[in-house]
Amino acid sequence: MKIRELIIQNCDNTENKGNGLIIHTGNVSEPVETPELFSYLDFLSEEPSRRIWNSDDYRMILTEIDGKITVYEHVRLANYRIQLLDLQEEYGEKQESDLNELADVFAFVSYEHRNNTRKSGVPYISHPMDVASILIKEDAPSELIFAGLLHDIVEDTDVDLVTIRRRYGPAVGDYVEAVTEPAELRQAAEGDKAQTWKERKQYTIKRIGRASSEIRLLACADKLANIRDLISDIKQDGDDFWSKFNAPKDEQEWYYRSMLEAFTTGPQNIADTRAYRDYKDCVDELF
C-alpha cells in the first residue's frame, strides 16, 4: 500500500505543527504492512505493541502502537523525486504519450530553480509541480503541462525563451512567453520590484484578458497554486506574512479579483473549469 492511501483510509486527524511538520493520526484494525518506499526499523520496534517504519524518500516516519498509527511528515524536507513519481503516475493515467519528456522537463526545471525558494522558504520546485498537477486534472495537452512546469523559468533564472523553444518546441515556448513579463518590465523591476508592481500586474491582467483559453488556464493554474500556498502560509504565520510581498493586502486583493475577471472575459473564458472555480473559492476565502 502507498503511504497516501494508508493516511486517507485510516487517519482522521491531521495537525500542522509548523516548520513543515505535519502529523497524521488514526487507528487500524489490522497490523500495518510496510508501505511502498518505507523501511521497517526492527531495532526500534517491539512487536507486536510497537512497530516503526522510515522513508528517506518521503521524509516520513510511521509508527503503529497498540493499533494507533502516527505519520510524521516533514513536508519542507521532502525529496521532490517522489513528487515527480506521483506526477508521472497521475500524468500517465490521463495521457498516452511517453513519460520520458515529462521527466526531462522536471529535471531541467528542478535544476534551474535549484537556488530559488518560495517566500515560505520551501524549495521553489514545489510551485511548478503544483501548477502542472492542476493542469493534469484539467486534461490539458502535454505542451501546456510542460509549460506549467516551465512557466517561471525565464523570469527567475538565466534560461531564455530561445532555449525553451529549442528544447521543447514552439508551442511550449509560446505558452511560457504568454505568461512571462516582457524584458522591459523585468528590467525596470530590477531595482525595486515594489515600485513597478502595479504596472506589471496591470500588464498581466490586460494580456490575460485577451489571451486564448489555454493560456488563461495556464495563468489560472499558476494563480491557484499561489493563493493556496498563501492561504496556508497566512494560517501558519498570521497576517505578518503579507509583509513579504511587494504590495500590501488590499493591492493583492485588487490583483487577485482582477484576474478573476480576466479569466472570464469574452468567448475564451474558462469559467467552467475546475481550476477557475477553485481559484474563485480561494479568493473569497482569503479576502
Question: How would you describe what is shown here?
Answer:
This protein has 287 residues and is an alpha+beta fold. The chain folds into two domains: 3-77, no CATH class; 81-286, Hypothetical protein af1432, CATH 1.10.3210. Helices cover 54% and strands 13% of the residues. The chain has 13 helices and six strands. Strands 1-2-6-5-4-3 form a six-stranded antiparallel sheet. A hairpin with a 4-residue loop joins strand 4 and strand 5. The longest helix has 25 residues, at 213-237. It is globular. The two termini are 40 Å apart. The mean pLDDT is 88. It holds the Pfam family HD_4. This is HD domain-containing protein. InterPro entries: HD/PDEase_dom, MESH1. GO terms for molecular function: guanosine-3',5'-bis(diphosphate) 3'-diphosphatase activity. Residues 120-236 form the HD/PDEase domain.
What's the short story on this structure?
The chain is an alpha+beta fold.
* Main sheet record: 6 strands, antiparallel
CATH topology-level fold name of the largest domain: Hypothetical protein af1432
The side-by-side strand order for the widest beta sheet comes to 1-2-6-5-4-3
- Please report the first level of CATH classification, the CATH class of the largest domain: Mainly Alpha
